[in-house]
């Protein structure tokens, strides 16, 4: 499994914000390490969790994409211990190229051992990470409501989609309060569906990229 940190060159204020986010995350990691060591499944997300929380069937959509492309790439943002990636591997095997990103290392987990040759997990922030490729399907569950800049995170996710790719994002309603953001999606060639999630104050944002053009939300963060 590959662990690699890379990203853009943000300005000093952005660097300070990201550094603060990382310090907080790593403090949380230290505080909860013992608990996670006893139960490495604590940060697991499964296909059934994604389906229930977002009211979206990822398996059906991935099958649809596979019919079009034969093989697809998947990114899980905030992948935790990699359980969702393992579920995708068990469901689709070598037809899916799997990548995950998270901000901290996890204690040893049998899940990661199973994933070792079947997925790449990166350490870093989605707000600054630059992957060397784009993806056909991106998920994020129970993550974006905790990042320092959720609008920037959504922008970065959108710009890591291939044309025709789809992102399914679990957000708090407060993360994208400015309604002009949705007009910006359409202006930049994205179609979107926004619906209530199963958790109070949470929504599911489903974005489909219809162009090669990148999304710019900089005036909203």
Helices and strands, with pairings:
Blueprint (H helix, E strand, L loop, with lengths): L11 H27 L8 H8 L3 H12 L2 E6 L5 H10 L3 E7 L7 H6 L3 E5 L11 E6 L9 H9 L2 E12 L7 H8 L2 E7 L5 E8 L12
Parallel strand pairs: 1-2, 1-4, 2-3, 4-5
Antiparallel strand pairs: 5-7, 6-7
Outline the structure in words.
The protein has 221 residues and is α/β, with parallel strands linked by helices. It has a single domain, classed as Vaccinia Virus protein VP39 (Rossmann fold), CATH 3.40.50.150. Helices cover 36% and strands 23% of the residues. The protein has seven helices and seven strands; from the N terminus they run αααβαβαββαβαββ. A seven-stranded mixed beta sheet has the order 3-2-1-4-5-7-6, sandwiched between helices. The longest helix has 27 residues, at 12-38. It is globular. The model is unreliable at 1-9 and 29-42 (pLDDT under 50).
Give me some keywords for this one.
single chain; about 25% strand; about 220 residues; disordered N terminus; alpha/beta; 7-stranded mixed sheet; Rossmann fold
Summarize the structure.
By secondary structure, the protein is α/β, with parallel strands linked by helices. Helix content is 36%, strand content 23%.
Order of helices and strands: HHHEHEHEEHEHEE
Task: Estimate the strand proportion.
Answer: 15-25%
User: What is the mean pLDDT?
Assistant: 83
Output the CATH homologous superfamily.
Vaccinia Virus protein VP39
Low-confidence stretches at least 5 residues in length (pLDDT < 50)? 1-9, 29-42
Distance between the termini: 33 Å
Number of spatially distinct domains: 1
Supply the CATH architecture.
3-Layer(aba) Sandwich
Q: Biggest β-sheet: count, sense, barrel?
A: 7 strands, mixed
As a whole number of angstroms, the C-alpha radius of gyration is 17 Å
Record field, number of beta strands: 7
CATH classification class: Alpha Beta
**Approximate shape:** globular
Strand order, biggest sheet?
Answer: 3-2-1-4-5-7-6
